[in-house]
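Can you make up a protein sequence with its backbone structure tokens?

===
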Amino acid sequence: MRGFEELVAEASGVSVDGWDFSWLDGRATEARPSWEYAGVMAARLADVRSALDVQTGGGEVLALAGRLPVTMAATESWPPNAARATALLGPRGVVVVATPDEPPLPFADGAFELVTSRHPATVWWDEIARVLEPGGTYLAQHVGPASVFEVTEWFLGPQPEARSLRDPEAEGAAARAAGLEIVDLRTERLRMEFSDIGAVVYFLRKVIWIVPGFTVERHRDRLRELDERIRRDGPFVAHSARTLIEARKPGTGPGA
């Protein structure tokens, strides 16, 4: 294995735009949920007239869908990702709107038959309910509770209060409070492995909420300790948490 400084320098210099993790091939692994969200989303998109993908990132997941509805929009708040999504999805007729990840969504009431989102940073249930047409569906894969907390707590120490966040039952209750009916709600914990310290640095630069405020210089001592542990004991193991949630807005839409 290459030295600590070389691995860290390499991972610090590579672009982290978009939501493509192929740079980690051969360096980190993560098991996938049994429901295969991208495939489920693609099937739903092929069967509706209008849809919105919220917090689309670089558009990589939405781009996997073979068929998109006639009216297809996406939102993204980070300018580099919005630019990537526009370049990737624009040729397929998707309107990508650069907007903050906070309400209101820049769309009319009842504008969409389907709203999707993969790993949204925040979920504004009232807004989702507002832009769904009666009978419309919200289908999403959320980050679940205590996801990758082995990494978080390695750098930040114990986080007992944060462990209770993103509870799926609480999310279901919030959806119901916004007037939606829960159709499906399930969570899985999935094994992750980091095989070198460069993979950890890249991951933390890209998934910024795992260790808020992460920088190599600020966390160099713990990075070096983790590098020594990986060299001695093998890959660092963590566990992601993923929640599949499907919620329906009561009523009968115009496409019924």
